[in-house]
Write a structure and sequence with these properties.
Length: 217
C-alpha cells in the first residue's frame, strides 16, 4: 500500500513538472515571437541606409550646365570651392578687357588726331596738364609714343579676350572630367609587378630578353 502511494506521488510530481515545462516552453516561444515581431517592425520602420550609395553625377549634364552657365557644372558636381575661381577669372578678365579697350580708344583717337594735320582735333592734349602748350611738344616723339601705346593696349585687350575664351573652355572641360572621375580609385593601394619579357626585334631574327614593369592601382 505504501509503495502504491509513493508511485502515485511520483507520477503527480512528474505531471506537475511536465506542465511547468510546457508552460515555460510556451512562454519562451511567445517571447521569441514577440522579439522577432518587434525586430521586424523596427526594420520596416527604419529605412536601411546603404553606406556605399554615393553621389554619381552625369558627365554630360555637368558639361552642358557649365556650357550654358559657367560655374553651374561645378555646383552640380558639388565642387563649390571651384565656383569663386571660375567667377573670379571671368570678372577679372572682363574688367581687364574693358579697361584695355577704353585705353585703346583714347590712344587711337589721339593718334588719329595728331596724324590728320587738322589743328582743330587736339585730343592728344588731354594727356597733358592745362599748363602745357602744344607748341612745346615734340610731335614726332609724341606720334611714335601714341602709336606704341595704342598697339600695347590692343595687344592686352586681345589677350584678355582670349583668356575669357580659355577660361570658358576650361570651365566646361573641368566639369566633364570632374564628373567622370568622381569615383576614380585614388587609394594608396599601389603595387608593382616585374616580369621577364620577350621583345621582338625587326633588326634581328632572335628576340631580345628584358624585364616588364606593370603598376596596379
Amino acid at each position: 500500500m505504501a509503495l502504491v502511494l509513493v508511485c502515485a506521488a511520483i507520477a503527480c510530481s512528474a505531471q506537475a513538472q511536465s506542465r511547468d515545462i510546457d508552460v515555460l516552453s510556451d512562454t519562451i516561444v511567445v517571447a521569441d515571437t514577440t522579439m522577432m515581431l518587434t525586430a521586424t517592425l523596427d526594420k520596416e520602420a527604419k529605412p536601411v541606409v546603404n553606406d556605399k550609395l554615393k553621389f554619381n553625377p552625369d558627365p554630360m549634364r555637368a558639361m552642358w550646365l557649365s556650357a550654358l552657365c559657367p560655374g553651374a557644372g561645378q555646383i552640380y558636381n558639388r565642387r563649390y570651392w571651384k565656383l569663386p575661381i571660375v567667377i573670379g577669372a571671368f570678372v577679372g578678365l572682363t574688367y581687364g578687357t574693358s579697361w584695355n579697350n577704353r585705353m585703346l580708344n583714347d590712344y587711337s583717337k589721339a593718334y588719329r588726331d595728331i596724324t590728320d594735320n587738322d589743328p582743330n582735333t587736339r585730343s592728344y592734349m588731354d594727356f597733358y596738364p592745362p599748363t602745357v602748350k602744344e607748341s612745346d611738344l615734340d610731335k614726332s616723339w609724341l606720334t611714335s609714343t601714341l602709336k606704341s601705346r595704342k598697339d600695347y593696349y590692343r595687344r592686352y585687350r586681345d589677350i584678355c579676350i582670349i583668356g575669357i575664351a580659355a577660361v570658358y573652355l576650361l570651365n566646361v572641360i573641368d566639369a566633364y572630367v570632374d564628373a567622370s572621375m568622381m569615383h576614380f580609385d585614388v587609394s594608396d593601394d599601389l603595387s608593382m609587378q616585374i616580369k621577364p619579357a620577350v621583345i621582338e626585334s625587326s633588326q634581328s631574327r632572335l628576340p631580345s630578353v628584358g624585364l616588364g614593369c606593370a603598376f596596379s592601382f
